[in-house]
Amino acid sequence: MATLAAIGLPAAILVRLFAAATALALARRPRACRGAALVGSMLASLLTVTTAVEVVASGHSVEGALFRHAASGTVFDYAVTPLSAWFLMVLEVIALPVALYSVAYFSHSLAASRTAVVGVAFNVLLASVEVVFVSSDVIAFLSAWEVMTLATTALVATEHQERASRRAAYLYLVMSHVGTGCLVTGFLVLAGHAGSLSFPVLLSGRVVSGPLRDGLFVLFFVGFGVKAGIIPVHVWLPEAHPAAPSSVSALMSAVLITAGIYGLYRVCAFGLGIPDQNWALAFMFAGMLSGILGVLYALTQTDLKRLLAYSTIENSGIIVLGLGAAMMAMSLERPALATAAVAASLTHVLNHAVFKGLLFLAAGSVVMATGTRQIELFGGLLKRMPWTGLFFLIGALAISGLPLLNGFPSEWLTFQALLLGFTATPGLVRLNFPLAGALLALTSALAAACFVRAFGIGFLALPRSSSASRAHESPLLMLVPQAFLAMLCVALGLLPGVTLSALDTVVVSLPGLQTTTSMADGALGMASGVGRFDYVVPGGFGLAVLGALLFVAAVTARRATAPRQVPTWACGGEVTARTEYTATAFSKPLLMIFKAVYRPRREVDALAEVSPYFPQEVRYRAEVEPTFERYIYAPLVRAVIRGAGAMRVLQAGSLHTYLAYVLVLAVVLLVWLGGTR
Amino acid sequence: MSAEAPFTIAAALLQAGGILAAAPLLKTVIKKMKARLQNRRGPPLLQGYYDLAKLLRKESVRSETASWVYAAGPRVYFAAVVAASTLVPVVVAAAPLEQTGGVLLLVGTLALGRFALATAALDTGSPFGGMGASRDMTIAALAEPALMLGLFASALAAGTMNLGVLVRGLVQQGPSWHPSDLLAFAGLFIIVIAETGRIPVDNPATHLELTMIHEAMVLEYAGPDLALVEWASAVKELVYLSLLVNLFMPIGIAMKLEPVALLVGLAAWAGKVSLLAVAVTLVESTNAKLRLFRVPELMAVSLGLAFLALAIRFL
Amino acid sequence: MTANVLTLCAAGMLVTAYLMVGQKALLTTIRLYGLQSLLLGLVAATIAIAESRPELLITAALTVTLKGILIPWFLMRTVDRIGIHREIEPFLNVPASLLICLGLTVVGYRVSTGFEQGARGVGHHLIGVALSLLLIGLFLMVTRKKAITQILALLTVENAVFLVAVGVTSGMPLIVELGISFDVILAVLVLGVLVQRIVGRFESMDVSRLSQLKG
User: Fold this and answer.
1) Among residues 71-90 of chain A, which lie with CB inside 8 Å of chain B?
2) Residue C144's closest chain A neighbor by CA?
């Protein structure tokens, strides 16, 4: 086992590259291509997860070299620290089922000509993310980061004949590069001060101080925040995630977000020295904003995958909120509290990946079966796709943070971190914590409403379109991964102590934190704080619920006859799909209550030929204002284009002018740099 | 823990059973008091039990368009609420299942029940169900921050989120009336009105489309399904009132498991809950139901009260 | 003795560059470039013998063969094929161009004093000449209109870089040498084809007609 861990990661990357090459070679045979790419990916995932579990279990990092070129002197070392191992575990726990799911999914909904590209990009993406998590110097990190961006763009642009896909890919590319630009600047400044490009030196926290440190923090926050989907640099997420094939969306939501989160952890929280209180407040504020706005926008979406994308923004906000609480604790030198908050945040990284992956896979099945992404055209799918519906329901329950599933423990932990933070922080600034707690409560309640809407309108009652009525269940290969993730949701929800115990080694390895969270109470329970401030045993409570259910069964069991099935009463008329509540109607009260956020616009046209009192047709159009796009990004883009236009005069069009530029520049540089000695 | 397990289970069953038995009485008492205030005689005190028995005997009618979710909704709702009732100290200054969770688990479980009921309401294809689900989830979402903050105020003051430990601490500390307690109580009282679907937030006696919220969600149920929903709503109300009563006025609660203490505790609980029921009745009878879009303002008031409670105590 | 040879060759290269500036006939310009490359090969060979570095002899041989003989032959063939033998009026007339080249030479020599090896002696001349050649090459590119002349200017710049590398540093690794040589060959081939296409399309080699190079 020890030797396997030592070579696990490079072996996995090699397997992935080999799988990608094979997929490319087999481009003419879609079935073989798919098999090669995805089976290779699954094999590599197994290798990586073995390494990661080994590191998390033992607490010892595994280090080695990825690439050495003696002639030029380039060395790409890697170090699987416990933190990296945790993120690798999260990655592979999702990548495995997604790959299995894709075997059947790609055969049904991907054009044969695109299979090779998607297979290659899939493996390259996973390989680059793995390298991002484990690289220990700047060049390797940034190269892998860039490859990750490019691979994702290729995947987002799979349906490049659709204008929306092209736009989404372009937007993603631009925003990622803005983020990467910030990262490059930040790293170069750090490297200039530290005199080295390797992470252990660069991120030791003793390199820079003062306003420069704050400036670097902002750069890295923006750079990593783009990938993590933090408001306000989130605008690419709702466009890009829906445009990719559904299994890839699952990967993106679960995995790419974690790459950004990993960066925030590694650099902003633990790499620039003891965090400043203002940084912690910035994190908490950004987290709260992302959480509440993410779920508010999710509530108004009728595109299922966009809804899930906004929900990802919300959960990303919760993770960042936990990290912010940890940073606040670190700035006040309370390691125990910081430990608790970090545990909350990292647990949510895992739990979010699991239930979001499940939701996206189920959504992918639904989209494949009905041919559309619009919730308003679904309906009655639970009867036609019973298993997919059940899995979506489990995912919906989990994401709403309801007890017995895995959303509850991470939310519980975040609340603990906030409450304990409140008691530990002095001064007026402590009021941020109950504010954050209230917003977190609001966010999770709104998330519950959002997913009642998504599941209820999408899967229940009558089909709202012919495509929904023709839907049928997915093949077994697509159901098995969903079942796996659903069971994982239940297991992680009932055994939260296991997750917490596993996190012990990770938390110990982070600089400045106390040993172990000591929050796990056996496998089943969690306890927090000094003197047991709060504790919870979801499993034990689950038994109580089970007992109550048995009582119910007993009370209602003495039926001689089966329940009578009758049509729903529709006030004397016929029950059709038109009399059902729509998704837009469901979220209308919230739309009106949160008018200030949404700024909705409504147009109602009544078309009448004979008389306005007898309209032929009524047209209704409601629109939620895209605040960020309209008020931040559009002016920014306009300013950039105006600036570029102003610089156009330099582009004279003549070859000789350009050459003259080169000559003048060469002379000036030579005189300035060379002659001044 | 495993040695005490049979004892815990017995206590849980006893408390759950007791609350199940007492809940319909509470509902009828409130109805009767309201009737008296309106110069009517009102239903007999045991009417709640008669109604439940009648419903349980009836045939169960289900919609053709619905799936298994429709039948599961009332059952999960009932199970969640009854399980939640074992987390709250009622007669004794301890909750049977207090070792399994505190405030957060309680709120979460009630949310689970609500999720189940709201989802099931969408299953019949009737617009009433959708409307009820939409409105109920909206109001619940707005109520949740205030509920959390109010409970946090008490919990943080006592230094624990575990309800049993909290109440025991309060009793040992003796009576003390910090202004923050009053603010928190006021805020939580408003939330209880909202969560139990009483005027001014919702009218439990109406079946008009414009005024239904909770009733709209359960409009399509009949027979045993309806019995489960009605019973669970009554239990939820009793749980909320008991929680409120024991968090802010824990006088008379039994600290020891002796017969005298238990009897005193039972009497105290019954008396305090009745007092609170009178308060609920008065609020219901003297207010008109708010328009749906005025309810958020009420929730904001509650949130402000809870936030103030926290601020005053800790700043 | 070596120093004298080197200085002489460097000076010779500079003279060829000046003559290129003053030339109107394309074939002569190409021959001047060939001469320049031969001188460069001579420099490399001298250093190889003086400092007993046999690998530099290979480099010298490569330079002479490729840049001194092959490329000029290829370019002359291209010119014959196209049939245009004279440069048209450049942007700057010859006396003005020569004056500017003088200025650029001064700059080159001045800058070379800023380098350690270029402060005195042979190194001073080698670096000075190299930098001057570089700047003159660039200048040629800016002021000439015919594509062939521009190719020659580019090749001059490349010669300048090579001169510095060979004369002052310990030379580039052989593999880099080979790489660059093949690079140059390829570039010339491609440019030659391109020129033929330009002429075929526009009936003229006048690059100043390419005025649409903007977004």
Assistant:
1) none
2) A656
